[in-house]
Design brief:
The protein has one domain (3-139). The chain has helices at 3-13, 21-25, 50-70, 81-100, 111-122, 130-139, and strands spanning 34-39, 42-47. The longest helix has 21 residues, at 50-70. The two termini are 31 Å apart. The chain contains 6 helices and 2 strands. The chain has a two-stranded antiparallel sheet.
Length: 151
């Protein structure tokens, strides 16, 4: 299956993609509204709740704006894969630490639940204290690059 054909079928199958797909597929996050599927030899994640998808997108957009300065990235469009993993996983772990006051947990059990609680506590996505979330993003350790096998 060529990449263009894959993208077309992916968009047909997944009309509401989860904005935390990379975080969920990296097994650091889970969500009550996630819908996992397989296409060819790849995995994908969709969202089953339109309102939560919009809340998550708004949060992630705010977080990405903050991290572009920290990562010294001046591009429009998506972040590089490794940086996006840091933003999604580190961001949600930061929100979890902020709301639950527990930094020992290394996984997020429910992205949507944290988003709803954050909105309840702070009054809206824009009102979250992103300055307190950013250390979790910058300190999140991604999986190290694989070294090529020596022959």
């Amino acid at each position: 299956m060529d990449e263009e054909n894959y993208r077309q079928i992916y968009e047909q199958i997944n009309g509401a993609p989860c904005v935390f797909e990379k975080g969920i597929l990296s097994l650091k996050c889970q969500c009550a509204y996630q819908h996992m599927f397989r296409l060819a030899d790849r995995h994908g994640v969709g969202c089953t709740d339109t309102v939560m998808q919009l809340n998550c997108k708004a949060f992630l957009d705010h977080l990405r704006k903050q991290t572009r300065f920290i990562f010294k990235i001046d591009i429009d469009g998506p972040l590089p894969h490794n940086k996006e993993i840091k933003v999604q996983n580190g961001g949600m772990l930061g929100v979890q630490k902020l709301l639950l006051d527990d930094s020992s947990v290394e996984n997020v059990e429910d992205v949507a639940g944290l988003m709803m609680k954050a909105i309840e506590v702070y009054g809206g996505i824009e009102e979250l204290p992103y300055n307190l979330i950013m250390p979790s993003v910058t300190n999140f350790k991604t999986r190290p690059k694989r070294q090529p096998k020596k022959k």
